[in-house]
Predict the 3D structure of the following.
Amino acid sequence: MIITLLGYMGSGKSTIGAHLATILEYEFIDLDNFIEEKVQLSVKEIFNAKGEIYFRKLENACLKEIYALKNNIVLSLGGGTPCFSGNMELINSENSKSIYLKLLPKSLSDRLFLEKEQRPLISHLKTEDDLIEFIAIHLFERQSYYSQAAHVIATDKLTVKETVESIVRVLY
Ligand code: S3P
């Protein structure tokens, strides 16, 4: 089985995914890292050198490769992965269980403000208010994709441990 974690940037997909994989004794794959290793460039460098469309094509190719070749893994996606290239169909394919880690814009902004330089889509935003406003609009646009996940878990008030426990509960 493939357990796929999706959600906005800063929703904790990678941290939660790594913990969940340890508990389940599954392999952990972070899609952004997988892409970075494949092309030997950071996500930021790919966006800067080749642009977003190139990144989305690469993201789709890597996602297909992982679903075709891997089993018993926890896969953490990039924030935009569900919203491009028909990826949500792959994400909800027979062998995959998808989980949306849902947070409010304010919680996301609190987490992202200090880390935004590494994230090409938000690195231009100067103030926290600008960031919250951007996230609120962007989340609204992405909502129809994220909500196709098999399970939705609101994690604003949960610790990493509690989030992992909630995931295990909905899965088994
Ligand atoms: C993106 C999210 C990033 C990364 C890229 C684009 C997005 O991943 O894939 O910068 O479109 O939301 P994280 O959600 O891991 O930050």
